């Protein structure tokens, strides 16, 4: 250890290891260590500043299972999110750039963790980890996969199909279009995701713009008409148009069936109606 621990620090880690504690709340040490509330606050602050424990919120800390090598420790995303959501009696699922990378859609490794949840909308730093917590309605949580992170711990990720749909639905937050369209085409082509799954997830978690774009994409991929009708029935008649790529000017060939303007160069070349 590079950092020499004082008597109270050693007692804290010995107590935590003896009780197999990973989470510590203010007030839990005063009795076992025989210290005052002020001494406890000072002890926790010293260890947090030294990077030996991590503060989740005021009064709630994460403790490593053993003394960290080199004196510094940072918890993984599964432990942080699980602790944070259990504290607020909420749910979460890792999404966006982290899920894009996990499923191999994007090689870029995110510098922060994005998570949909039903309790908190904020940016939080826990240890060296930066969290982008995106609060959504309960109905927008679901279609997940448990991903092993440690020997005894898993992280909740959006499923492969849900991640693809979120690339279209939440494009402005994740900067994921038009890349997301290519990911969907590749996944359909490889058979890793079925058109049926995409339709079901779109209807459950998409909005009007998402349904139109997914319908137009699946139509161009030659998906069976019965699946396309499911998407079409979810739309109300309208004369308004949405751009295929939202970040580009709304100029191009019009698809009246889905109310889409094919406004990228690739679409104008490959669209059979052009």
What does this structure look like?
By secondary structure, the protein is of the alpha+beta class. Helix content is 42%, strand content 19%. It has 3 domains: 7-73, Winged helix-like DNA-binding domain superfamily/Winged helix DNA-binding domain (Arc Repressor Mutant, subunit A, Orthogonal Bundle), CATH 1.10.10.10; 74-158, no CATH class; 161-274. The strands form 4 sheets. The chain has a 4-stranded mixed sheet. Strands 1-3-2 form a 3-stranded antiparallel sheet, with helices on both faces. Strand 6 and strand 7 form a beta hairpin. Helix 6 (160-169) packs antiparallel against helix 8 (179-190), helix 6 (160-169) crosses helix 9 and helix 10 packs antiparallel against helix 11 (225-233). Residues 268-274 have low confidence and may be disordered.
Topology:
Blueprint lengths: L6 H13 L3 E3 L4 H4 L3 H13 L4 E4 L2 E3 L14 H12 L3 E3 L1 H7 L10 E5 L4 E5 L2 E7 L8 E7 L2 E6 L1 H10 L1 H4 L4 H12 L4 H11 L2 H13 L4 H9 L8 E2 L9 E3 L4 E3 L2 H6 L4
Parallel strand pairs: 5-7, 10-12
Antiparallel strand pairs: 1-3, 2-3, 4-5, 6-7, 8-9, 11-12
Largest sheet: 4 strands, mixed
- Distance, first to last CA: 68 Å
How many separate domains? 3
- Overall mean pLDDT: 93
Please give the number of β-strands.
Answer: 12
Poorly predicted runs are 268-274
Tally of helical runs? 12
Cross-sheet strand order for the largest sheet: 4-5-7-6
SSE sequence, one letter per element? HEHHEEHEHEEEEEHHHHHHEEEH
**What form results from the Cα inertia axes?**
elongated
Q: Helicity, in percent?
A: 40-55%
Strand content is 15-25%
Secondary-structure class: alpha+beta
Gyration radius (Cα, Å) is 24 Å
């Amino acid at each position: 250890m590079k950092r020499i621990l004082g008597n109270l620090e050693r007692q804290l880690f010995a107590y935590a290891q003896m009780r197999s504690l990973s989470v510590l709340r203010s007030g839990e040490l005063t009795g076992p260590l025989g210290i005052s509330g002020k001494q406890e606050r000072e002890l926790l602050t010293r260890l947090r500043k030294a990077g030996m424990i991590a503060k989740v919120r005021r009064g709630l800390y994460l403790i490593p299972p053993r003394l960290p090598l080199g004196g510094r420790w940072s918890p993984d995303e599964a432990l942080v999110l699980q602790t944070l959501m259990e504290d607020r009696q909420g749910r979460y699922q890792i999404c966006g750039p982290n899920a894009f990378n996990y499923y191999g859609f994007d090689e870029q490794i995110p510098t922060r963790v994005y998570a949909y949840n039903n309790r908190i909308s904020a940016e939080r730093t826990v240890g060296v980890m930066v969290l982008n917590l995106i609060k959504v309605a309960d109905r927008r949580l679901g279609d997940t996969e448990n991903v092993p992170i440690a020997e005894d711990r898993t992280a909740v990720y959006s499923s492969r199909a849900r991640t693809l749909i979120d690339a279209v639905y939440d494009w402005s937050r994740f900067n994921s279009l038009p890349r997301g369209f290519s990911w969907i085409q590749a996944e359909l082509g490889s058979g890793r995701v079925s058109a049926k799954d995409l339709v079901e997830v779109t209807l459950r978690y998409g909005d009007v713009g998402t349904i139109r774009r997914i319908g137009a994409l699946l139509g161009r991929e030659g998906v069976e008409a019965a699946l396309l009708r499911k998407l079409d029935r979810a739309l109300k008649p309208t004369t308004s148009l949405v751009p295929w790529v939202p970040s580009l000017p709304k100029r191009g060939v019009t698809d009246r069936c889905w109310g889409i303007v094919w406004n990228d160069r690739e679409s104008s070349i490959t669209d059979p109606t052009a």
